[in-house]
Amino acid sequence: MRNIIPLSRWYYKETFEDKYVHEFENMDGFSEVVVPHANKEIPFSNFDEKMYQFESCYKRIVEVSEEMMDKRLFLDFEGVMTYAEVFWDGNLVGSHKGGYTPFSVEITDVAKPGKHELILKVDSRERDDIPPFGFVIDYLCYGGVYREVYLRAVEKTYIKNIKVEQVGTYQGLKINTFVDTKEKGNYNLTGALWKDDVKISEETIPISVHDGVENHEIVLSGLENIKEWGIDNPELYEVKVELHKGEILDEVATRHGFRTVNFKEDGFYLNGERVKLRGLNRHQSYPYVGYAMPRRAQEKDADILKYELGINIVRTSHYPQSKHFINRCDEIGLLVFEEIPGWQHIGNEEWQDVAVENVREMIERDWNHPSIIIWGVRINESQDHHEFYSRTNALARELDSTRQTGGVRFIEDSEMLEDVYTFNDFQAGFEDRRHRDQQAVTGLKKDVPFLITEFAGHMHPTKRYDPEQWRVEHANRHAYAHDEIGRDHRIAGAIGWCAFDYNTHYQFGSGDRICYHGVMDMFRLPKFASYVYSSQKDPQDEIILEPLTNWTQGDREEGGVMPLMIYTNCDSVKMYIGEKEIGEYKPSFKKFPGLKRPPIVIDEMISTWGDFWNDACFIGYIDGKEVKRRKFLKNPVPSKLHLKADDLELLANGYDESYDVTRVCVELTDEIDNITMYGFERIKFKVEGPGEIIGPDETVMLGSAIAFWVKTIGQTGVIKVQVEIPTMVSNTIDINVI
Ligand code: GAL
User: Fold this and answer.
1) pTM of the prediction?
2) Which residues does a 6 A CB cutoff place in the pocket of ligand 1?
3) Strand 450-454 vs strand 420-424: parallel, antiparallel, or unpaired?
């Protein structure tokens, strides 16, 4: 049977010299680290991105037991940015180009019982021979061993991978089982379908293996009463495959969701029903540590997108993202557009070979995820390249015949080698409705499956603490885009740029190494634009009532708060100033007919100057009943420092003998819990017990709010978290570490 051992603890040094390979004992300059690890902690903003672009060394001892001697042994790396060389007892045993896809190095022939020296040379420079590098890029790629590492021991004949495909509409399953061997032999393969703890179907086939990797198909047929996987009902099954000969030699499992997906000329169909795609792009980066965040944080991002923002699709711009993120998308019913690494630039043939290999690595890692509905097989926004993109498309189709391909472009009349024309339309999202006509974009004389993969973004960068009017415009642009695309059935949907602010290279962003393009900031704290998305949710899930204002007289041009947009899923909203009822307002279906839940637009001039200025109250109604109230004070005074952790229980060693994290959010609010505006107070984060703060423990609030992540350190107990600003101390949160 297989045995998988996490290799999470390493010694690390921020430089590499060839002699390190032969001097394992020399610990000079090495410190203990745990993966996921960033090769360099960076400031929140304003830094030189060269600071993490260097070669570094990771090393550790790996123990090989007697029992492992009759096995095959692999080192599995989930993600090392960007180029890795792997040394085993001083000898090079493998290397890999590309930081977003996994790779394995076999060490069977060089492993003996006892201790071995494992040393990695990690090159995190932006090498021209590896995608996405070679030109400029609007995001940072960071460095280090930022995903998990494992030692995997399997039998001499073992299951390398499985690919599960549906037969008909759920009558059967074909389990492609890739068995790897070095010696001829006869075995049995048993494939089974499970739902929770119940075995639904099982089939055993005899197989003969020869040499290398061979695909053996197990077919389960006659399936009945299958529950479909969907956005609202993400039913997951488990497929298990056993390799046996008398005893069980290997067992692998994967999840399966029964569903059909299809992009057509008139939209996207999930399980035969047309679904308008409404989504956002996600970069996988976080403040201070870049990509190096463990499972819980990855899962939380998926939850934020699904539950807080209520979107139905995420694009993993511009690379394959953490397996934990995608697993979570499967679990919660969030559709995924996954794509290969790259940004506008196509390199030479060697570079293209790496990109084609990225297609393989991405698809072979992720083909069993029901959430993934399309493969992006072009370099984001690159020019046409017939030969290169014929290769990426052909490979994607050969590996996975069940999903269509897309390839994100911004040029018109671009060659359509893919199944879906996926286009970044930065003309979408204006009040005067200018999203481009698809035939004008494609240059084709017929309609094709068409999806807008980006809009907004750099057209209107917005900070969470920008002037009110600016933030309102940011929100409206997302609403205009989804409205116009919502009305056009020849477009499958729109994925906005983007979910979260992100660190970037000096050529992009606001000059401080941040692109303020998110509907949330880097801490995943909401901007006004996030309410465009959350207000589309079913009120059964959450009632949203968000008047886009700080309720102050002097933050907009010429003062006042008009026109006032209220993003809400209520039927109507009554507005009061002081005791005076101003009116009852309904969502503007006239202005936003393409939105399921349009915002309310109050654009009459309500005088709000001088003495008339008073408290305001907005009351939301559904079916004639009051369901929510939002009040604003005419004279809000900072009164409370709120602290909230995403999780109150963490695992001392995380999920892979590493560490666990949770986010803690801080808000400076007035007496009635409205966030105050534009507060930039000095703030100290305090943690006692078995936890540490990621990043600095002292900073400033950004517009009266901020967040930080707390990580565990391998010990159980209670982490006490508190924050302090010059005028106030927060409550204390207890996080239980088990
Ligand atoms: C696009 C690009 C994204 C991001 C965005 C900003 O052109 O694909 O990565 O840079 O612009 O709006």
Assistant:
1) 0.98
2) 138, 317, 380-381, 424, 454, 457-458, 497, 517
3) parallel
